[in-house]
Amino acid sequence: MQQIKNGGLEVEAAMKQLQHLPFEDLGYARIDHHRSLRSGMPEVIFCPGKSEPQILEIFGSLLKSGVNIIATRAEHSTFEAIIQVYPEAKYHQPARIITLEQNQIERRGLVVVVTAGTADVPVAEEAAITAEMLGNKVERIYDTGVAGIHRLFACRELLDTARVIIAVAGMEGALPSVIGGLVRTAVIAVPTSIGYGASFGGVAALLAMLNSCANGIGVVNIDNGFGAACLASRINRIGSLEDEAK
């Protein structure tokens, strides 16, 4: 144990101890209650592959730890089971995310989520809802793909004010390259599985984004709006972390 000063542990020493406290073992899952303390982001429930009783138990376990809840890729039937027990929960249909906010969220910095087409909106909404739950201000610009690029140029002022931009596109995946050539902020490219046969379920868009000639673009996995939001949130928090370190 660390030395006790003034009747209690030093704050810094206590925080270091708390960062490595055990998880909660539910048998089929080990719930990391201290992830938010350690990494700044709470553990999130990935619903596919879990039964509704399992999701409910994990949901309740996380609630007891005092964090805000995010459950991704959730079917509406799962939400219907959850609101029977936790009526404060909300379901975000396009994103397929269940949230329960038990702590007020202070949102800072601007993350702009842009899609090439309307068909990309479910992935974009997964990014947008996740980013909001992680404490970011979010603005949405949807259906601005290269087939009508003037629609994107009409939103140039908003793009220029963003701290981070998440660009979501299927088909040939050109949108992030266009945005990357226009702005000086970080661009996170999200390929989607939207497209015709030769799109290969998003592989064509993924390769186009990885091979972009525009600088400052990072790429996440196909349809991974959640991962894009987590990365955007970490980038958005850099200034705040530097202030805390001083």
Describe this entry's structure for a reader.
With about 250 residues, this protein is α/β, with parallel strands linked by helices. Helices cover about 40% and strands about 20% of the residues. The protein is built from 11 helices and 13 strands. It has helices at about 10-20, 35-40, 50-65, 75-85, 120-135, 150-155, 155-160, 175-180, 205-210, 225-235, 240-245, and strands at about 5, 10, 25, 30, 45, 70, 90, 95-100, 110-115, 135-140, 165-170, 185-190, 215-220. Strands 10-9-11-12-13 form a 5-stranded parallel beta sheet. A 4-stranded mixed beta sheet has the order 5-6-8-7, sandwiched between helices. Helix 3 (about 50-65) crosses helix 4 (about 75-85). The two termini are about 25 Å apart.
Element-by-element helix/strand order: EEHEEHEHEHEEEHEHHEHEHEHH
Unreliable parts: 1-7, 241-246
Specify the number of helices: 11
The secondary-structure class comes to alpha/beta
- Strand content range: 15-25%
Largest sheet: 5 strands, parallel
Give the overall shape, derived from the CA principal axes.
globular
Query: How far is the N terminus from the C terminus?
Result: 27 Å
* Strand order in space, largest sheet: 10-9-11-12-13
Tell me roughly what share of residues is in helical segments.
Answer: 25-40%
Radius of gyration equals: 20 Å
Mean pLDDT value: 86
Would you count the extended β strands for me?
Answer: 13
